[in-house]
Amino acid sequence: MVNGTGTDRTSIDKPKRKKCSACNKIGDYIACHKCTKAFCFPCADISIHESNLLKKDRIKYECVQCCNKKDTTDNFSVLVEMINQLKTQLSSLQQNFEKICNERTDETDCSQNPQDMDSMISEMEERRLRAKNVIMYDIPESDNDNKDVRINHDTSEVTNIVQSMNVNINRFSKVRRLGKKTQGSNPRPIMVTLENAASAISILKKARANKISFIKNDLTPIQREKLKQLKEKLKTKLEGGETDWTIKYVRGIPQLWKIHREQNE
Predict the structure, then answer these.
(1) How far apart (Å, rounded) are the C-alpha atoms in residues 132 and 201?
(2) What is d(CA 163, CA 68) in angstroms, rounded to the nearest whole number?
(3) Residue pLDDT, tens place only, 88-98
(4) Global pTM value
(5) Which domain of life is it from (predicted)?
């Protein structure tokens, strides 16, 4: 067909022809936007119609070799990232395992008994979950019958306390009262769940630095028993005149710690 200018219209619409990089035949082609090599439609595994649709929608074509190379690189990067994450998790598990072993009151080897291993793994998981929590005591409790109103009241109280400590945390995953409310009872403790353990640690550090006693960390039963024993030992030492002892957290583990005071020369 010839248009008004006398030009053969079919010559304009006809695709350009090049030598295929795969089969070396000269014919209609599509070029890979990565390696710029030309491929005939059979080798590219697409039709002329599909090629026109790609051009119309401005979708770039990639040959099989470039796609495989890209997938291999991406998969390798993902694999390396997964290995690094597993190493970090393994290191954390090892540290937690050693902590629990050090806190055991009996002298049995915790790696010998499968039941001990199961209980320790369970303890490690429970500590991981509780690490994001802090517990606040003696916070006034709302008497409103509406649950949402009570939650908003508690959240507001917690927010004010955290802000007064100059801790930059404005969001809590969950705020809830512990235990069942009874008439005439003291305010129930509030458990505050943070988005991560680091946020909980920052609140606890500020509380200890400012000697705020109504904010505590969320301990497992084993941790509570360990802390109770340490407090009893500390009390015995203090009553015996050994006033240079205290409880200090070393790598998250409470320990009896002797205070070394500088002597006046």
Answers:
(1) 8
(2) 53
(3) 767 766 666 66
(4) 0.53
(5) Eukaryota
